[in-house]
Amino acid sequence: MEELLIKQTGDSAFPNEGSFLQTPFWAEFKSRHGWSYRRFLIGQDECAVLTRNFCKGFFTLCYIPLFPVFKKTESAENISRKLYEAASGIKKFLPKNTLAVRFDPAIEFDSPEERDSFNKEIKKTELFRKGKIKKNSVDIQPPDSTQVDLTLSEDQMLSKMHSKWRYNIRLSEKKGVQIKKYDGRSPDLSEKIDKFYELTKETNARDGNSSHAKSYYKDLLEYSAAQIGEGKDCPVVNLYIAEHEGDEIASIITLFSKTESIYLYGASSNRKRNLMPNYLLQWTAMKDAKAYGSKYYDMYGLPPEGKDEKHPMHGLYMFKSNFGGKMIHRPGSFDVPLSFLYNAYSLAESLRSFWFKVIMKKLRGR
């Protein structure tokens, strides 16, 4: 078997293509918020490898988002082998207390059933049965999403939406909702980030979610603007706020690149929800992303189980799915353990996720 070529590289440029999670821009931004990163050539493909210390440096976790890229026709046996070889190859470059290398393989399926079938096949592979590869119970990136085709005309994009979604966009415009856009150079950015964060806290209280610190969002916009100001080719990050008669009632943060545009974060008030500001926000961002030149607009997270009308996430599923995008389903996160402490960490991670996503939401009546 041919040995996989692995070597450490540097950042020669800031490419504005491919998954934003693999751009030097995003890796450098994450390094400003607790992570470290290096770039590697693994085989013929270059990737960003993130590491982070936990428990005051007692252990480290290595994370490689949306990499490697696989075709869905590739066998589970080959994919598991390539993940293991990649992790084994970069091990010598990692801190000795690294628990595991975590991957989110970039492989897309057309249905949840097709994806689930693939994951079952992975579990039958020799490396999985020997414990050399584990399916993480907590997915880092959303494995399911919907992507709106921005290569279509605006009329074609509207025609693919549910008729009620087109109606809600027109209603929001008719009722006088206005969308304002800000970037990291905006003189009133601090004030607008304060409003976004205020809306985020209101949303979290309503939906039982969590969020980043306010400084995280502000730095994301400012760092993007600073890099662009230096002439670097990196994604554009914008803040959109929906206003009505002086009230700022909803907001989103987006990221535009040549390949994709991403709906990263969103928040909305409990007031004036009847004005449908979230529909107009998304449509405005989609039009801007199309003008920027992105190929698709990713809603970045879709709960397929929410298709069931009785499911608590049915509303979120309907909101995102009815903008007319293509559904994609990825296999989620896989770990290659490097330490005997990995199993204890994995159990603790699963228990923490269960506590916040199940127990706490039930205690809050959700």
Structural overview:
The chain has helices at 24-31, 76-90, 112-122, 126-129, 154-160, 163-174, 189-207, 214-229, 277-292, 314-321, 342-363; strands at 6-9, 36-42, 45-54, 59-64, 98-103, 134-135, 144-149, 178-182, 236-244, 247-256, 260-268, 296-298, 326-329, 334-337. It has 366 residues and is α+β, with helices and mostly antiparallel strands. The strands form two sheets. Strands 1-2-3-4-5-14-6 form a seven-stranded mixed sheet, sandwiched between helices. Strands 8-9-10-11-12-7-13 form a seven-stranded mixed sheet, sandwiched between helices. A hairpin with a 2-residue loop joins strand 9 and strand 10. Helix 2 (76-90) crosses helix 3 (112-122) and helix 6 (163-174) crosses helix 9. The termini are far apart. Mean pLDDT is 91; it is low at 362-366.
Layout of helices and strands:
Elements: E1 6-9, H1 24-31, E2 36-42, E3 45-54, E4 59-64, H2 76-90, E5 98-103, H3 112-122, H4 126-129, E6 134-135, E7 144-149, H5 154-160, H6 163-174, E8 178-182, H7 189-207, H8 214-229, E9 236-244, E10 247-256, E11 260-268, H9 277-292, E12 296-298, H10 314-321, E13 326-329, E14 334-337, H11 342-363
Parallel strand pairs: 4-5, 11-12
Antiparallel strand pairs: 1-2, 2-3, 3-4, 5-14, 6-14, 7-12, 7-13, 8-9, 9-10, 10-11
